[in-house]
């Protein structure tokens, strides 16, 4: 918000010698941080001049210039110094200046910049020879002085409503010596986007009394009448149960002078505040918006229908806004339309920008002034949807005072009557009612406990009254605080406490370092994640993060079945990219993109892993979940319904190896990654966390049907899958053939009992090892056979290892040989060879009964 200090001085006692940098520091102390300064940019002599003579000269380049003699005052006029350029007479000293503009005549008062001056942009003025004359200065336009974009002609003081005498200081006359302070307004303090709001902050900061020019009890407002311009609010699509427009004020001004122009003082303030003067009616609406904070709009009555209708857009409707852009509207967009008579058109995008059809023009004599109050969420969504941030939308989406509409409309109408000679019609439209004020109970002791400053009741009362709140003492050290209408950000007692701390001065709050609480260390989930991540990093994997957004096409590339639960995505209402509107259900779906990217940059051997959340809409109720207004506390049943509408988001680990698992070197040729690499990785993850898993062959996308494993936990939950990716999946995604990967569900892992705890004594007796090779069906999983051997061997079996697999010609077709090493140890004695052999034979006997296993000699 740009704050011209001379404008601020209209509402508060601002000393003329105020240091703007010191003022910025004071504002920062109450939350208004300084962004920039816009101060005097012109140095040197800039004076009022009177044109004494003007001679038009045509030159060979086709340009006609004016050779002028200008009286710039006794202090700056020079005696005749060039016989070729005689002065009008010795009794009238002057300066000779060349000027290319033609909008002035002899006798006009203009602004002359004399040699030695420096204009904005470090443009230095000096006497120079041009067009056959010595031009001793420059006659200035508004653009050259930084007063606007008009460069079609020079400044003529009478056209600005200004006067003076030759030699007068034009810098002071034009307000070019004023300073504008630009402050950063936080999104929750929309009231500060006005001179009214900034003035209130200054008055409280300095302990001054403040007369609120925007209060209906201070300013003059029109009472509603039955014959006001008809306005109807039809909101068929309220957002969160809140209608888009709850109040609408309309005043009518007739008989405006179309030729009336914006006075210079108003133009100067608009420019200083960062806005471009356009026309008197538009400038007045902008001026009042900057002054009070209420956006306004003026419609040409002659172009309006018989009534104004506020409604939501229909699908496919279009509107050309004042910036000349045709926009396709969304059913959530709130519109200002008209109907009846010449009506039946969209005349504005409510709270954002008006339409071109009823724009005030050069022939407008009668206007309808709109001062409405719109829902911040509706306006914010419309502005972002159309990428159309305006001064109006910035204020509405931050919250506009609901009581301000009638005041601002009357202020705008009065200025139009004063400056354009119009007549304010007594017919006044008031649709809707302002909300009841919010009352919050505040214990003063709670202020002390939260802020750490010992405030008195009187001090808290004074500080809150300074922000415009009403105070009633309802008990010992207890206040009932009526929140001011413009403070939509204050909804609870902590917001009031924040205001006490802010306006009372942040420098009063002591800086005391609190004693650290005794920590309990990491949670079990955090320790588990650290163990797994360390294991993967030690195995050569690099941790990465991918964006969790995907699309239906990726499901097809992964060859997921039509009924696969992983196709049940959560769809984003406002995705970052229309190409990626879905939340991922599997980490592999986004991790593969990083593998492809790294390989595209020359990394041919890649091992990446990612840990993160996935989301699924499986089990969610149809339609959106329950919604409640801010500040409402749901009941237990409502909370249960809310939680039921939240997608399930388990925490997963996934990894991919592409290329070599063991790098080539002097030690050998290296080895390509295989399914067994990632299967072993998952087994070791389970073992690291004290879990036993059953490994089963599985056929599930996106893995190869014959080279994939499923891991089942003790309680029957699936931990995850690992193996080689399907050749078609690799082809679809641009991955090298034989790429392998894994994905596990960490939440399922954490739900298991940790078996690492040891509740017995370590045996000090030696082990006895026995080897056995068994011939079984080739389809029998090794894991199944090992579990049978472990069961048959008994409690003295300490370790079972698989050390050989043979499938050669010496075996019958469809058979394989698996060799196991069984390690036995007794806790209370040294096992004899016969005892160990008996245990081994018991194990092989059970394997023969269950699986038809034969001992291979």
Automatic annotation (TrEMBL):
Ranges of compositional bias, category Basic and acidic residues: 74-85
CDD domains named among the record's database cross-references: PheRS_beta_core, tRNA_bind_bactPheRS
UniProt domain FDX-ACB: residue ranges: 763-856
An MF annotation (GO) of this entry: magnesium ion binding
Keywords, in A-Z order: Aminoacyl-tRNA synthetase, ATP-binding, Cytoplasm, Ligase, Magnesium, Metal-binding, Nucleotide-binding, Protein biosynthesis, RNA-binding, tRNA-binding
Ranges for domain TRNA-binding: 40-168
Positions with a binding annotation for Mg(2+): 489, 495, 498-499
Cofactor binding, per record: Binds 2 magnesium ions per tetramer.
Reaction(s) this enzyme catalyzes, per UniProt: tRNA(Phe) + L-phenylalanine + ATP = L-phenylalanyl-tRNA(Phe) + AMP + diphosphate + H(+)
InterPro entries documented for this protein: aa-tRNA-synth_II/BPL/LPL (IPR045864), B3/B4_tRNA-bd (IPR005146), DNA-bd_dom_put_sf (IPR009061), Fdx_antiC-bd (IPR005121), Fdx_antiC-bd_sf (IPR036690), NA-bd_OB-fold (IPR012340), Phe-tRNA-ligase_IIc_bsu (IPR045060), Phe-tRNA-ligase_IIc_bsu_bact (IPR004532)
Biological process per Gene Ontology, one example term: phenylalanyl-tRNA aminoacylation
EC number: 6.1.1.20
Primary subcellular site in the record, as a coarse category: cytoplasm
Entry's family note: Belongs to the phenylalanyl-tRNA synthetase beta subunit family. Type 1 subfamily.
NCBIfam families: pheT_bact (TIGR00472)
Entry protein name: Phenylalanine--tRNA ligase beta subunit
Gene from which the chain derives: pheT
